Amino acid sequence: MGRGRVQLKRIENKISRQVTFSKRRAGLLKKAREISVLCDADVALIVFSTKGKLFEFATDSSMDTILERYERHAYAQDQSLLTDSEAQGNWCLEYPKLMSRIEVLQRNISHYMGDALDALSLRELQNLEQQIDTGLKRIRSRKNHLINESISDLQKKERALQDQNTMLAKKVKQNEKELNERVQLEQQNQLGYSSSSFMLPPPPPPITLPLTMGSSFQTLREAMDDASIQQRPNINAVIPPWMLRPLDK
Fold it and tell me: Highest taxon of the source (predicted)?
């Protein structure tokens, strides 16, 4: 026999009601988690017990983000349905919503700062800790990314400076080499000029005298004396004056 339909009504037994609440709450949280994973949907679930205890479930986008999206969507739908006169009157209804939203945000900020934590349950503290850890991971990731970018920029600048330094060193060596070659060339030119100044003059070409049958012995002797005088080197042009003094004596 199949199971009959159970009539939905309030359970009078307190213990049975509490057990049913725990089971149905666990099943509801499980279904919410499954639909968020399978369908990639943002799910937010809020359950209050008879004693006023809060049970909630939210996806990675956090409960506040989902509630804010819901309020914007509901507000947009209301604005599309309301007329201009109704929209003006809706501002009176929107004010309490905004004030409650501000209170929630201020309370969350105080929780993030570590204040007013006495009213939070263990699950709420765990969710708060998880949110803070997620924020810290994002902050560290962004900080490490900026540090790596600055390090890479400094390394590029270092390589550019090293290349520039190498190029300048090559230019300095080339200039020194050209200067040394120029100095050596000038020294060689000076040495060549000084050595050429102390060289003996080349001997004069020999003098040929025409001899004829009618020339006399005196004419031949005079010609020979003149030739010897011309072939004698000019000692004064080569030897300094202080060496000529003993010769004169």
Answer: Eukaryota
